[in-house]
Amino acid sequence: MIVGVLALQGAFREHVAMLRQYNVNAKEIRLPSQLQDTDGLIIPGGESTTISKLIEEYCFTDRIKEYSLSGKPIFGTCAGSILLADKIEGRKQDFLNLIDIDIRRNAYGRQVASREIELDVEFLRPDSFRAIFIRAPIIESMGPDVIPFAWYNHSVVLARQDNILVSTFHPELTRDERIHGYFLNMVRYKV
Ligand code: GLN
């Protein structure tokens, strides 16, 4: 099993390090052709406008859509969740349109741009998960096919629709691999 991590900008090294720590074959993806032999893809946090420009410049858009259509799992964290959303508040143009969520960027405001909280995640109960939010977006609404797994301040912060998983926080910045573990099960067992 090979998991690709989109390595155009942002926190891709941290995802790769976490995957390798758990003996997963992780591959940095800089060109669409490199997706070919991967079984799952992570789109990291970073700066969503920059990543979106690079996605277009390197002709990733259609390739990532095809990737998802073929059933391969994709996990978007923070900026990655913005790129996967069907609707981004304040933007006429959206990016990948792969999950039925409506998302707003930098939604917690500057004062509280970053925070760490103990998050109750449905599939990790009874333990909590220490979640790190950095200039995080807020999922404003979601369609009926999206399954929510965790909430913070009445907003969903971890959710899934079919083969697409999104978190508005950064699970790769902790030492806790359990959310990656959930994604790896999606990749390995197609569950
Ligand atoms: N604020 C960033 C954006 O809108 C996302 C922040 C992050 O990925 N940590 O692109």
Number of strands: 12
Order of helices and strands: EHEEHHEHEEEEEEEEH
SS class: alpha/beta
Bound molecules: glutamine
Task: Tell me, rounded to a whole number, the average pLDDT.
Answer: 95
Helix content: 10-25%
Largest sheet: 7 strands, mixed
Specify the CATH homologous superfamily: Class I glutamine amidotransferase (GATase) domain
Tell me the β content. Answer: 25-35%
* Structural domain tally: 1
Number of helices: 5
Backbone CA Rg: 15 Å
- Tell me the span between the first and last alpha carbons: 15 Å
- CATH C-level class: Alpha Beta
CATH fold node name: Rossmann fold
Shape: globular
- Low-pLDDT stretches are none
Strand order of the largest sheet: 2-1-3-4-12-11-10
Instruction: Based on the coordinates given, report the CATH architecture.
Output: 3-Layer(aba) Sandwich
What does this structure look like?
The chain is built from five helices and twelve strands. It has a single domain, classed as Rossmann fold (3-Layer(aba) Sandwich). The chain has 191 residues and is of the alpha/beta class. It is globular. Strands 2-1-3-4-12-11-10 form a seven-stranded mixed sheet. A three-stranded mixed sheet has the order 5-6-9. Strands 7-8 form a two-stranded antiparallel ribbon. 25% of the residues lie in helices and 32% in strands. Glutamine binds next to helix 4.
